[in-house]
Amino acid sequence: MADQPRDHVYYHDPFHDQQRFFTTNSSSVAPDPSSYMSFTDCLQGSTDYGSLASAFGLSPSFQEPFSSTKKDQKPKMESGEAPVTPNSSVVLSSSTEAGDDEANNSKKSDKQTKGTGEDGGESSKKVSKPKKKGEKKEKEPRFAFMTKSEIDHLEDGYRWRKYGQKAVKNSPYPRSYYRCTTQKCTVKKRVERSFQDPSTVITTYEGTHNHHLPSTLRGSVAGLFPHSMLNPGHMAGMGFPNQDFLVQMPQMNHIYNYGGGTSNGPNPSMYQHQQQQQSNNLNQYQQLQLSDYGLLQDIVPSINKNHE
DNA sequence: CGTATTTGACCGGCGC
DNA sequence: GCGCCGGTCAAATACG
């Protein structure tokens, strides 16, 4: 069957009854929290991860398939198969499975300049290996989400320094690698654009911040994401041990429209419009989930392990 | 001049 | 064992 078993895709509509959330606007600090909830409010209000998990359609039982099985799938759909609906918005996922994101595919001749050797025999140019022998790199918790945005590098409140960029195999768009600039903080994040929906940015956080948000950046999107969500490790510690975490949030793109200063806050009409759309969004959720399934498998290899 | 980004090379894991 | 590929390093470059 060309289609993967997606009956286990974790689709949920946690915000169906919390539409206020969608009115969240990150262009500035929410001026009136009482009128609508921010992402932070929404999630912090839950305080405990159980609520958060349930809000995202997660349950303790569903943790099992995540951590048990091994990745052996060979999915991935051909590009151009099922376009993503414009209204698809955000997919969150976290993982500690240091499995490859998308090393699961057929190969394609790539011009990777490997072993060019250099004539000088300068062997000094080698990547130092800080880790001890036999000590495998620790698996950092990961947390990924998809966002509709024209901006590649979404502001999340932390300062990042780009340390690499690579062309990814099944996408015409490169993947950028960022590292938290705070000393002693080993958090990294990858940013890439969905090849299926160029308007969608996939951001993957890895590691746990050991510091607070830079004060100079308060108020941006940082305020929209609870600390726990920006710290996958915390999530893992809150009941998500070695689990992948997937969440979809419709219309999250509004959150990231701060870049151009175009979003000046939610207007009631839009709010209502979105409310009405919620009922229809169910199908759109599904479409996103289905059409991006291969992509999600890349991000969260274990997503389909639970099958069987 | 200091800091951030770019970019080619290298390394290690994994599949064949 | 070989080749592919993701991830990382670090010199070169750009920028403020």
Automatic annotation (TrEMBL):
<dbReference type="GO" id="GO:0043565">
    <property type="term" value="F:sequence-specific DNA binding"/>
</dbReference>
<feature type="domain" description="WRKY">
    <location>
        <begin position="149"/>
        <end position="214"/>
    </location>
</feature>
<protein>
    <submittedName>
        <fullName>WRKY domain-containing protein</fullName>
    </submittedName>
</protein>
<dbReference type="GO" id="GO:0005634">
    <property type="term" value="C:nucleus"/>
</dbReference>
<dbReference type="Pfam" id="PF03106">
    <property type="entry name" value="WRKY"/>
</dbReference>
<dbReference type="GO" id="GO:0003700">
    <property type="term" value="F:DNA-binding transcription factor activity"/>
</dbReference>
<feature type="compositionally biased region" description="Basic and acidic residues">
    <location>
        <begin position="104"/>
        <end position="125"/>
    </location>
</feature>
<keyword id="KW-0805">Transcription regulation</keyword>
<keyword id="KW-0539">Nucleus</keyword>
<dbReference type="InterPro" id="IPR003657">
    <property type="entry name" value="WRKY_dom"/>
</dbReference>
<feature type="region of interest" description="Disordered">
    <location>
        <begin position="60"/>
        <end position="144"/>
    </location>
</feature>
<feature type="region of interest" description="Disordered">
    <location>
        <begin position="257"/>
        <end position="281"/>
    </location>
</feature>
<feature type="compositionally biased region" description="Polar residues">
    <location>
        <begin position="85"/>
        <end position="97"/>
    </location>
</feature>
<keyword id="KW-0238">DNA-binding</keyword>
<feature type="compositionally biased region" description="Basic and acidic residues">
    <location>
        <begin position="69"/>
        <end position="79"/>
    </location>
</feature>
<feature type="compositionally biased region" description="Low complexity">
    <location>
        <begin position="271"/>
        <end position="281"/>
    </location>
</feature>
<keyword id="KW-0804">Transcription</keyword>
<dbReference type="InterPro" id="IPR044810">
    <property type="entry name" value="WRKY_plant"/>
</dbReference>
<dbReference type="InterPro" id="IPR036576">
    <property type="entry name" value="WRKY_dom_sf"/>
</dbReference>
